[in-house]
Amino acid sequence: MTVKTIRKRALAVAAAAALALAVAACGSDGGGGSTTSEGKTTMVWNMWSGSTAEVDAWNHLSQMVTAKHPDLALDFQTSSFNDYWTKLAAQASGGDAGCILGVQSYRAPSISQLLVPLDDMLAGAGINAADYDPSIWKALQVDGQQLAVPYDFGPLLMFYNADRFREAGVPIPTTSWTVQDFISAAQSLTSGGKHGFAVYPTIDSVTPWSLSLEGTGPLNAQGELDLTQEGFVKAVQWYADLVTQLKVAPQVVATNDATPALNSFIAGDAAMVVDGPWQLVNVMDQAQFEVGVAPIPAGDSGSHSQVAGSGFGISQTCPDPDKALQAIAVLTGPEALQYLAEQGRAFPARTAQQDAWFSPELAGAKDGLLAAIKNGVPAPATENYQQVNQLFMQYGVEAVNGQQSVPDFLNSVQQQAG
């Protein structure tokens, strides 16, 4: 199950520099937008991006909006995923958030007060919930109110460097591979300064292992954060042991980089990494090897990952919510999601467009993704999820590197965020 990429690493270096320029060019002034005396409206669209390929994709969708509504233009303003949430909080506190906001299902509860409920507006904009996968449609609701229209969803997956697997004579992962298969492969692929796997301590990256190994996630049966549950602690310890005991993953360094593990994989330094289907556009654009996709390997509790996704909502400070929803109807419409699917940026939330993600060069990913979706579970979400994730990264580096015990690390995060 592989997808062929043809880009060279030199392009990745150029892309990184170009992204910095693109982000700067997109602006950072915030504000909802403005309308001229001629009736031409410009609205700020705040969204995250991880590469120039993503920036290009979002700008293409922005052009789709203007093509559909000539009196409406979007001022696309972007930043890295981690920075996006920090900037959004600052902009919101100053009443300076954009009209259209990117909303991730994990973090919808924590920003619900910033968003306009859409339920009474959807029909007027021609948006029908029945056109979207019900799991992600519901995941973007808070207290029964629809706060965003989804564009993508999916589980976390295992990306692997098929070239390194073949060179080492290691069996290619299948949809039925196990945790023991994963460990065996990672050990065989760790040599010569390169590693079999790349880790970074985020709550998102640990959760699929906890679900598969122990059958538990970071929330208890009452939906409350409980990082000290025995099963979750054991799973995080197992994750840390990949670095400290098995040494199939390198020690991690604290960074502001949103995707350090993925970048290690793209550079060819790690043979496997866990990330989502939304990252395939970046992997394809930058990696110079053949990439494979597999579900999370099965542990004692099976193969499971949380299923999450993202969409677009309207800020409470937007002066024209109806016009903003017209734009969102285009951004999440059939043509836009067909385009994002073909680019590998999004596994479409619209069910009719999902086959487009499996275009010829992505066909190898179909079995892995569909198997992961079949065994997926709803993503955990709490009002303080962003705070939990920040604390997890802040203190998790020492725990993963063996400089702090895992129970102490989780207790610290639980006490500060719980």
Automatic annotation (TrEMBL):
Signal peptide extent: 1-24
InterPro entries: Bact_solute-bd_prot1 (IPR050490), SBP (IPR006059)
Domain of life of the native organism: Bacteria
Gene3D superfamilies in alphabetical order: Periplasmic binding protein-like II
Coiled-coil spans in chain: none
Pfam families noted in UniProt: SBP_bac_1
Keyword annotations from UniProtKB, A to Z: Signal
CDD domains named among the record's database cross-references: PBP2_TMBP_like
Record PANTHER family: ARABINOSE-BINDING PROTEIN-RELATED (PTHR43649), DIACETYLCHITOBIOSE BINDING PROTEIN DASA (PTHR43649:SF12)
Protein name: Carbohydrate ABC transporter substrate-binding protein (CUT1 family)
Organism: Pseudonocardia cypriaca
